[in-house]
Amino acid sequence: MSFVDLFVEIKKSNDMSFRLLILTLDWLYLINAAFINEKGDISLCS
Fold first, then answer.
1. Distance, CA of 40 to CA of 21 (rounded, Å)
2. Entry pTM
């Protein structure tokens, strides 16, 4: 799932800004809870 796809899905249920989404993804990446592959798709680490 790309950043934009994820943002669209989140926007349907929550009033979150794109800036806050990116900040959240940054923290998830830093604590190894999320992974971004070469295509730019985001997935949760297990």
1. 15
2. 0.71
3-34 pLDDT, tens digit per residue, is: 788 899 999 999 999 999 999 989 998 998 99
- How far out from the chain centre does Cα 37 lie? 12
Distances (CA, A) of 10 to 20, 38: 11, 23
Q: Measured between alpha carbons, how far is 8 from 45 in angstroms, rounded to an integer?
A: 21
Single-letter residue type at 38: E
Class of residue 32 by CB neighbours under 10 A (exposed 0-12, middle 13-18, buried 19+): exposed
Structural domain spans, the chain:
3-36
Instruction: Write out the two tokens for 27.
Output: 């923290």
pLDDT at 9: 92
